[in-house]
Amino acid sequence: MTPPDRRRMLKLAAVLPTLAYGMGARAQPAVGNKPVNVDEHFTPLSFYDPKTGQGRWSTVYNQGPRDAEQARTHAANESQCYIDPNFMPELPSPFSPLPGGGVRISLTPTPHELLARCFGRPFVSGMLSSEHFFSFTYGRCDITCRPPASANGIWPALWFVPLKPMWPPEIDLLEIFHDQPTFSLHSTESGKHVQDSTRRPDLGPLSDRPHVFTLIKKPGRIDWLLDGRPLKSAPADAQFDQPFFLRINLQMISQFAKGPISRDQQSHFDILSVKLSGVV
Q1: What are the extents of the domains in the chain?
Q2: Maximum distance among all alpha carbons in the chain?
Q3: Residues in the chain with pLDDT < 50?
Q4: Buried b (16+ CB within 10 A) or exposed e, 167-187
Q5: pLDDT at 178
Q6: Which CATH code for domain 31-279?
Q7: What is the 3-state secondary structure (H, E, C) of the chain?
Q8: pLDDT tens readout for residues 132-160
Q9: What is the rounded CA–CA span in Å between residue 148 and residue 207?
Q10: pTM, whole model, 2 decimals?
């Protein structure tokens, strides 16, 4: 090959990926190869301290001051305020250790005298967020947990969102509505929100024992597994080719309730371990 021919070939090689992308082919994501490995058993539970940058799990949404409503609550129609030992220390922590390892997240009624400080939310609960601990672009995440027993309006969730502040996308490894396990993918299509949800009432009550919920995130595809068995597979476009982090929370929401919610209602979500092997 002569030098002019070689230069022409190099220019063509540089242009081809752009042409292919314009024709609908999947662009290759710019992903590093930094390995991410997590083996978390919450012994003990390590809280992230924004003042020192030390610790693992954040207990608020990554928006606003830690004592602000937008950091302690999610949506207007939800009935819980997320607390921790540093916020509302006069209340029992919603996080308690489990025998042999793991953490229990509890949802309990807010005392009437503390409703104003809890932004009027009639329940207090806990959330664990890994944005300061780990995130991953591709890999496998196994979460061993025991979902709550059936309770009116309860909404436990294991979900992943991007480190970059944007929505969609979102990956819901597990949500339970009306006692129905649900597995969802939120994305955008032509600028519109698209939700791909699969409900599996046939799985029966999942509160009978701990189960392993698995998310496998690959270029172009996301898979869900339950106790090693395939549950769902969905295509994933380029917006998923970025680091995602994990949120674990126990919510109470009136729109999923079957009738009025008792003010005495309580619930528990047991998280035994989080294991991750991937790259970011």
Answers
A1: 1-30, 31-279
A2: 84
A3: 1-29
A4: ebbbbbbbbbbebebbbbbbb
A5: 75
A6: 2.60.120.200
A7: CCHHHHHHHHHHHHHHHHHHHHCCCCCCCCCCCCEEEEEECCCCCCECECCCCECCEECCCCCCCCCCHHHHCCCCCECEEECECCECCCCCCCEEECCCCCEEEEEEECCHHHCCCCCCCCEEECEEECCCCCCECEEEEEEEEECCCCCCCEEEEEEEEECCCCCCCEEEEEEEECCEEEEEEEEEECCEEEEEEEECHHHCCCCCCCEEEEEEEECCEEEEEECCEEEEEEECCHHHCCCEEEEEEEEEEHHHCCCCCCCCCCEEEEEEEEEEEEEC
A8: 999 999 999 999 999 999 888 899 999 99
A9: 6
A10: 0.88
pLDDT in the model for residue 247: 98
Q: Which two tokens mark 159?
A: 């979900």
Predicted confidence at residue 6, as pLDDT, reads: 38
Q: Which two structure tokens, joined as six digits, stand for 56? A: 């693992």
